[in-house]
Structures are given as C-alpha cells and as structure tokens.
Amino acid sequence: MMRIRLIAFLLIATLGTMAIAANRTGQTPSARPPGTSYKAPAFTFNKITDGVYHAVGTGSLVVMSNATIVEGDRDVLVVDSHVSPGGAWALREELKAITPKPIRWVVNSHYHFDHSHGNQIYGPEVEIIGHEFARAQILAGKSQDSPAREFFVGGVPATIKTLEGRLAAATDEKTRAQIEEQLAIQRNHLEGTNAVKPTPPTMTLTRKMTLFRGGREIQLLFLGRGHTAGDVVVFLPKERVVATGDLLVNGTSYMGDAFFTEWIQTIEVLKGLDFDTVLPGHGAAFTGKAKLDHWQAYMRDFWEQAQKFHKAGTPWEEAAKLVDLRGQAANYPAIRAPGITPNHAMRRAYEILDGKVK
Question: What is the pTM of this model?
Fold first, then answer.
C-alpha cells in the first residue's frame, strides 16, 4: 500500500511540474508544434564571424525568411521567427548544435507573417522585440490578414491538389518519389501555417535600443519608413555586420506596404552605418554597399513610371502589367519582361498618389 501511495505521489508531482512548465511556455516541455514533419536539417547556419550566424532554410521545411543568430556571453538573440511555429521550433532545436546557450531575445525585423509567425513558441523567459508599429499591426491581425500572406501562402491548398494530381498520374518510381517529397513539404507547410496564433512583441522601440551581452554590443535601429512603417535593423558595430530584414534583401523586396520615396531616403541613412556585411531577410548574405545603390535605382525607376501611369489615368491593374523595369535587369536578372508580380506594389503606389496613405 505504501508503495502504491509513493508511486501516486510521484506521478502527481511530475504532472504538477509539467503543468507549471506548460503554463509558462504555452505547451508541454517537449511538445513539437504542428508543421514539424520534415527531414532535418531545416537550416544551414552560415558562420559570419565568431558567434554570428546567418540561418538559411534548406527547403526541407518551408520557413520563408532567413534568421540572424547573435550569441552573447550567456544567451542568444535571434532576428526573425519565420512563417510558422514549426519553423521557429526547428531553428531553436537545430541551434543547439551550434551553442548550448538559450534564446532569450527575438527581434521581429517587421510585422509581416514570414518574419513573425513563429513568435508563439517562446515563453515568458524570452523577450520579443519589435517596433511599436509592428506590435500594433500584429495585435490588429494585420500579419494574418494581408494581401502578402494571401499571395504567398493562400495558394498552398491548390499546390497540394496539383501535386496530388501529378502523383496519381506519375508512372515511374523516381518521379513519384520526387512528387511525394514535394507533397509532404507542402502538406507540412499548410499544417504549420494553420497553427499560427499571431503573437506580438513584448518589448518595443521607436528609434533605438541597445543591448550589451558581455562584450557584444547589439543596436536595434529604426532608420525611417521603407518596406513597412516599422522596419528594424540589427547592427553589430564591432563586427561591422547589419541584419536588414526586408528593408534590403538580396534581390527585389515586396513593396505592397512600401513608402517609396521614404524608403529611398532610409536606404541612404543605412549607408551611413559602418558595416561590411549585410544579412538580409531573404537571399544570401553579401558584402559591400553596392546593392543599396541598386535598390534605390530600382525604386526610383518604379516610382517615376507609377506616377506617369497614375497621371495618365491608367488603372493600377493595367499599370502593373505595363511597368517596364528591364532597365534594372543588370542588377536584378530575374527581370525579363514588363510587369511586376505581385501587383500589390502598383496598387500601393496609387494609394499613396491618391492620398490614401499618410
């Protein structure tokens, strides 16, 4: 009888401990969130300098955005939490092979779904930092209900249906295996994004915040409106490294929330920082400041054409098909024909020109 009571006591104590942990983190201690059925690794951790890494998705798990990892003396700061709780969970788990130090700081470079929808996996021991605008947008449901999310994620069910049709029609084993792998990735992606509970930053800034983690100085800076009204860059002055989110990517950035002329000026302010290496929110890391000039030239070209179409009374939908940015193709070789996709950029330009955006 005493043995039974002891076992019962230990079981109750264990369940109580688990309940406390679940209450702190929002899930049981070892629980995997939905959307984590993938073949590891999900990330490649590209070392930039000691304790600084650029985490880029391998494709086995849809994460959509990059992350920057900054190791301090006792803990780790991560820039951006990806498109789903599954993506954030995979980063946290795989990061354990790089450092045993816990994640204590997460920075949302901006509010968009592909950079903030992993926030929910972090418990109260982790501070999520973002611009006050990012917090307001997430609280208002704008990260979940946005044209950008619909464009980039809304088509996943149709993609799954197409792959299922291709699988049914496939005859050879190699093709079937390839389609099955693609199908598994997309089904997992849908499961992960369906599990999102938009979670806002717990700490905000308006202009600047500086963290000192041992000998590491980490500056969080709002340089002006651009990609959104609340883009934060993370600058490591000693290491001469800057993580830019989507304010500057290795390619063309989404412009559906853009402030075009202000963005050009914000990039000019960014040029004033003393850095050598850029860790963008999408695409590979790069060195130098030439891409800042390229992006300014692209936006100037787009904005000048948008103004002409608007003045001529061309509907924005038609203008999005006619805008010709092939003059920028030397720096953006993916541009091969007139038109811009998604067309949200032209709609945004017309909203600004019509005075609907302040």
Answer: 0.91
Q: What is the per-residue pLDDT across 165-214, written as a single tens digit (0 to 9) for each?
A: 999 999 999 999 999 999 999 999 999 999 999 999 999 999 999 999 99
Give the pLDDT mean for 262-267: 98
Share the mean pLDDT of the chain.
93
- Among 118, 83, 84, smallest CA distance to 103 is for 118
CB 338 within 8 A of CB 309: no
Q: Where are the domains of the chain?
A: 43-145+198-221, 308-353
* Phi, psi for 49 (deg, rounded to 5): -160, 180
Angle (CA) 34 37 39, round 5° = 150
47-101 residue pLDDT tens: 999 999 999 999 999 999 999 999 999 999 999 999 999 999 999 999 999 999 9
- Hey, which CATH number is domain 43-145+198-221, 3.30.930.10, 3.40.50.300, 3.40.50.880, 3.60.15.10? 3.60.15.10
- Alpha-helical regions (H) of the chain: 2-25, 85-95, 113-116, 132-139, 147-153, 156-169, 173-194, 260-271, 290-311, 316-322, 344-353
CA 173 to CA 166: how far, in whole Å? Answer: 13
Measured between alpha carbons, how far is 63 from 68 in angstroms, rounded to an integer? 13
Integer Cα distance of 172 and 55 in angstroms? 36
> Strand 233-236 relative to strand 241-245: parallel, antiparallel, unpaired?
antiparallel
- The rounded Cα 311 to chain-centroid distance in angstroms is 35
Beta-strand pair 277-280/233-236: unpaired
